[in-house]
Write a structure and sequence with these properties.
CATH architecture of the largest domain: 2-Layer Sandwich
Strand order of the largest sheet: 3-9-10-16-13-12-11
Oligomer: single chain
Helix content: 25-40%
Structural class: alpha+beta
Number of domains: 3
CATH class of the largest domain: Alpha Beta
Number of helices: 15
Strand content: 25-35%
Mean pLDDT: 92
Low-confidence stretches: none
Bound molecules: glycyl-adenosine-5'-phosphate
Distance between the termini: 29 Å
Length: 457
């Protein structure tokens, strides 16, 4: 993990946030290549799940919604983590994560009353004692009584900062799709099943952010609320299970052996879901969730219908019936997929004494790197750059030796490198170097863009 963090910072994928002011712990900025990698994954998600489908539509809701939305959805009352402090070293922990870690790494057995972050606080206090859970920092076993800590990030609207003007930054993109459901159904004239997709920032006042960009307080989600007739929800769940896996493996290019799909136990289910499974990725620090696929039933629509007193039901003209649709929700974390792509791609090639990112060309931030063999033919190489950059995100580099430039390109995961020398160029050719095989091929300038396009698929 340390190597991946170092490469990310040195090569411009991810930087520490506000670094010149001494950084705020566990906050990160995406640099030039990280931003492009993230945008590529986001655009591929939009292409697969919105552009290529006839049943899904995209919306873009406000980050700050009416606070009543979050009261109705149950987030203000129930979206809380169990917090405890180590009495010896004052480190703050999520008590359920301490127990989960112990259960995963030892033979300890979960007590019958253990329900993850939903466990009653007094019972969880006792479980920490009974299982002799240790503080990961100082290895002592003495914790303060658990306090429930709400994850909603508060803000204030208008000129006063009293409770009347208090609002929240959204903790998930999802409620926007429910609040706008009737508008979308009416204006798009869609028939069930259909999905409403949203990509954007969400905010959670996480107690223990960490593991690089894995758990942050500000992050991007890609979520679809897929509305179906009740009774058709199990089939839709199976459909989105397969579609999510296809996205992770065929589109983002993650190795299937680094993914697992596991059920969330009934007692640990979020307050809104009947059934939920997680897609986890095998990060260097252990398995971590990248998507939750949930059957949210009609929980959200009925909660908003009751709180707003507006009719959110759907009219099925064929069967002449009014009802609240059920919702299947594939909810992915964009930053976590970026991190998975970096971990999956990180390759140490001992034979050739190099480290490179074997990113799928579809997600690679820079597709083509253009370099003149010697600086004095830079003007020719810039013509090649101009030709290629019409179609692809390229970069131009004439500084330092060819070997050093290849090494940099490999660490950024650029799939193709075009070198230009005057003899080849005079004959109308350039040399293409492939990142993974390091093989080189002479290609005619007139065919270069098509050649790259063919190999990007
Ligand atoms: N609308 C449902 C929902 O938000 P979730 O499991 O809480 O479900 C969905 O979040 C995904 O968002 C997670 O699987 C994860 O990939 C991402 N996510 C959640 N909290 C995060 C955090 N603090 N930092 C980064 N990503 C996060």
């Amino acid at each position: 993990m340390k190597d991946i963090v170092n490469l990310s910072q040195n090569r411009g994928f991810v930087y520490q946030w506000s670094e010149i002011y001494g950084w705020l712990a566990n906050s990160w900025d995406y640099g030039p290549y990280g931003s492009l990698l993230k945008e590529n994954i986001k655009n591929l998600w939009l292409k697969e799940f919105v552009q290529k489908r006839t049943d899904n539509m995209l919306i873009d809701c406000s980050l700050i919604m009416n606070p009543k939305v979050w009261e109705a959805s149950g987030h203000v009352g129930g979206f809380a983590d169990p917090l405890t402090d180590c009495r010896e070293c004052n480190t703050r922990h999520r008590a359920d994560k301490l127990v989960d870690n112990l259960l995963e790494t030892t033979d300890a057995v979960a007590p019958a009353n253990y329900a993850g972050d939903k466990t009653d606080s007094a019972e969880l206090d006792q479980i920490l004692v009974d299982l002799k859970v240790e503080c990961p920092s100082c290895k002592k076993s003495s914790f303060t009584p658990i306090k429930k800590f709400n994850l909603m990030l508060k803000t204030f609207l208008g000129v006063t900062d009293d409770s009347a003007s208090q609002a929240y930054l959204r903790p998930e993109t999802a409620q926007g799709q429910f609040v706008d459901f009737a508008n979308v159904a009416r204006s798009s004239r869609r028939k069930l099943p259909f999905g409403i997709a949203q990509v954007g920032k969400s905010f959670r006042n996480e107690i223990t952010p960490g593991n690089f960009i894995f758990r942050t307080r500000e992050f991007e989600q890609m979520e679809i609320e897929y509305f179906v007739t009740p009774g058709e929800d199990d089939a839709a769940f199976a459909h989105w299970k397969a579609e999510s896996l296809r996205f992770f493996t065929d589109i983002v290019g993650l190795k299937e052996e680094n993914l697992r799909f596991s059920p969330i136990q009934k007692e640990e289910l979020p307050h809104y879901s009947k059934e939920a499974w997680d897609y986890d990725y095998k990060y260097p620090f252990g398995w971590g969730e990248i998507e939750t696929l949930a059957n949210r039933t009609d929980y959200d629509l009925s909660a908003h219908m009751e709180a707003s007193k507006q009719n959110l039901s759907y009219f099925d003209a064929v069967n002449n019936k009014k009802f609240l649709p059920y919702v299947i929700e594939p909810a992915m974390g964009l930053g976590r997929i970026v991190l998975a792509a970096l971990c999956d791609a990180y390759t140490v090639d001992e034979e050739n004494n190099r480290t490179y990112l074997k990113l799928d060309p579809k997600v690679a931030p820079i597709k083509v790197w253009v370099l003149p063999v010697v600086k004095k033919i830079g003007h020719l190489a810039k013509e090649v750059y101009a030709q290629l950059s019409e179609d692809f995100v390229c970069e131009y580099d004439e500084v330092s030796t060819i070997g050093k430039r290849y090494a940099r390109m490999d660490e950024i995961g650029v799939p193709f490198c075009i070198s230009i020398d005057s003899t080849n160029y005079d004959e109308g050719n350039v040399t293409v170097r492939f990142r993974d095989s390091m093989k080189q091929e002479v290609v005619a300038l007139t065919e270069l863009n098509d050649f790259i396009r063919k190999h990007l698929k």
